[in-house]
Amino acid sequence: MEEGLKVTFLGTGTSQGIPIIGSTHPVCLSNDPRDKRLRVSVLVSWGEFNFVIDCGPDFRQQMLTNQVRRLDGVLFTHEHSDHTAGIDDIRPFFFRQGDIPIYAHKRVVKSLKKRFDYIFEEKDKYPGAPSVDINLVETGKTLELGGRIVTPIEVMHNRLKVFGYRFGGFTYLTDVKSVDEKELEKITGTKVLVVNALRIEPHHSHFNLEEAIAFVNKVKPEKAYFTHISHLLGFHEEVERSLPNDVHLAYDNLTIQI
Ligand SMILES: [Zn+2]
Questions:
Q1: How far is the CA of 175 from the centre of ligand 1 (A)?
Q2: Cys-Cys crosslink for 211: which of 162, 166, 207, 246, Cβ 3.0 to 4.6 Å?
């Protein structure tokens, strides 16, 4: 069934992005555009609505490249800088549209308030600063965005609780190391699953490639895409060739329809 969702991978890289500044690693020196990865984020669009999941340090460039003219909200997975550091660049949207809705766990809001205090200032706010409309995300409580029900999925990034989001047939999970059975039930039947696959070697807070493939086999979506990729995973072309059918590496600016 056509759900009318359009998903654009704005960034598919891990925290430093690819290439890493100053690195001479062959993947960082690759000329394949699919080996250039900005910090991880997706744009989820339907009808007139545009939502982004996370707002990392490459947000401005991602909005320009994809010519995003209107932003209906930012859903945060967690507070780490590679997912939040671009929030100041919501300013052009704020100037045109007013307060920009953000959706985040209360711990994430607390962290944003500390790091971007001027955005949340109530008195004597600097006139050029953006403002946001805070919506708290809680486990077990669905969100309604642009007439659609969105289900937060609680997953573990080592010991940190992180949210993924399910929009009907589309589920986006990043920075995952484990998912408990109860949360797993919330994503059964998803058609397209996006999940992190950092590298070949194990990592304390991310799925490596083997764990990501095992997770896909458990969820059994029609199609899966891997994201939050380190240069240590290898060249896009080679890794892509090694993957099972209907499992792909995402790459920046890839667009899928659900
Ligand atoms: Zn991350």
A1: 5
A2: 207
